[in-house]
Amino acid sequence: MEQIYPRQQNQCKLVKAKPESIQLLLQYSKTLNIVNHKGLTFENNLN
Question: What is the DSSP code string of 18-45?
């Protein structure tokens, strides 16, 4: 059983996001409007 599971490798690196990237995501999330109506989901970008 041990052979079918991959071994854990410590090759993961944490990535730091630039402040510009965070600002872009925050601005996008503020303009995104999601409406649920009778089981349907509508996504609108309020630009």
Answer: PHHHHHHHHHHHHHEEEEEETTEEEEEE
